[in-house]
Backbone:
């Protein structure tokens, strides 16, 4: 079961002797459709899931932050004045957010807290963005800062890029900061404009973790970025987002076979993502599922970022009658798939898909039936008469 505010409050009270002043949470995410479009200035359609990072906290007046990680059963602390890298580990994400906020001119107050999460690690569900946005929400709350989701998302991204050293895009932090219950969020990765699209009634979103993890994919990822940049240069545009399907078909034959496949995926995926939003707004679940199926085929064949395990998982999901559509999600080469299924058949779908996948691969999957939740928020204040 997902964590809740009672559990995190109890952990805090046990450790610090009093109830917390505030409780904040920030969710992980799954991307319904729109893969490898972000660095092409395109469109993505993630939703915030009901797996999150929680922090129960109270203020300190000495300019220090002290946090106990329940998941790692260890504590970390740092001074807000003179932040430095000490060692790798979970505390560096909190320090990175503090650095990013202060570097942007925000005056921060210290706090002490207990932190826990139930976003699966390494599964491509953005546990790091959830930590960053929960930390940003904690600092905003204790320091009385205005909460602007887009601004905070960019500062969280900057922490991961510059402090942690991971060259992530903006999608993960944006959906963790800006999610809306019952909705997915269309993000224009060029303008940063967002649009919330309602999930059709009677649908469950199921995350299917293959229990395989991405290997050495940096070189493959960079290679695909270069191929996309070369294709954009060929078409004389800033990014592949600017190439219409008609433009592509007219000149595709002039590209080498590999670059043509890479460009075809990105251009068609942007189109599918926009059509998926239209389908959701009409309540057309069948069309949404069809577009997800087409996305997986494109990622498998044109972009070549799927894996045997991901393909088996998608095939196992699609073999159940309650499944409208399924696709790999995330960077690829391992990790998770996502499916949309009939809510009333979700339990049977989970059993069927897990069994079918395990019988074909020997891997034991982890399966999560998810709801779309709000982005980073304060869920409790003055808990139990705290300080």
Residues:
């Amino acid at each position: 079961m997902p964590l809740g505010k009672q559990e995190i409050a109890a952990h805090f009270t046990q450790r610090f002797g009093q109830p917390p002043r505030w409780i904040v949470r920030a969710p992980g995410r799954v991307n319904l459709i729109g893969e490898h479009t972000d660095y092409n200035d395109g469109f993505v359609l993630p939703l915030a899931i009901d797996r999150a990072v929680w922090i129960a906290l109270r203020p300190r007046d000495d300019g220090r932050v002290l946090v106990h990680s329940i998941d790692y059963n260890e504590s970390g602390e740092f001074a807000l004045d003179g932040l430095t890298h000490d060692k790798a580990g979970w505390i560096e994400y909190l320090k990175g957010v503090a650095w990013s906020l202060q570097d942007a001119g925000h005056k921060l107050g210290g706090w002490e807290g207990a932190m826990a999460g139930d976003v699966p690690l390494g599964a491509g569900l953005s546990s790091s963005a959830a930590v960053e946005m929960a930390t940003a929400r904690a600092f905003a709350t204790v320091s009385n800062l205005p909460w602007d989701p887009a601004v905070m998302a960019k500062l969280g991204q900057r922490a991961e890029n510059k402090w942690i050293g991971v060259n992530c895009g903006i999608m993960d932090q944006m959906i963790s900061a800006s999610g809306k219950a019952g909705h997915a969020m269309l993000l224009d990765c060029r303008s940063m404009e967002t649009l919330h699209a309602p999930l059709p009634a009677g649908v469950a979103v199921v995350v299917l973790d293959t229990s395989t993890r991405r290997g050495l994919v940096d070189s493959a990822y960079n290679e695909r970025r270069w191929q996309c940049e070369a294709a954009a240069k060929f078409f004389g545009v800033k990014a592949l987002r600017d190439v219409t399907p008609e433009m592509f078909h007219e000149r595709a034959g002039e590209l080498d076979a590999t670059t043509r496949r890479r460009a075809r995926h990105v251009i068609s995926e942007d189109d599918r993502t926009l059509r998926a939003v239209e389908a959701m707004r009409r309540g057309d679940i069948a069309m949404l599922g069809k577009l997800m199926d087409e996305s997986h085929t494109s990622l498998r064949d044109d972009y070549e970022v799927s894996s045997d395990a991901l393909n088996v998982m998608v095939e196992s999901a699609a073999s159940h009658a309650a499944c409208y559509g399924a696709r790999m999600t995330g960077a690829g080469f391992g990790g998770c798939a996502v499916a949309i299924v009939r809510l009333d058949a979700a339990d049977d779908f989970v059993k069927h898909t897990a069994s079918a996948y395990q019988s074909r691969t020997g891997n034991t999957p982890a399966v999560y039936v998810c709801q779309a939740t709000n982005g980073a928020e304060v869920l409790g204040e003055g808990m139990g008469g705290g300080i």
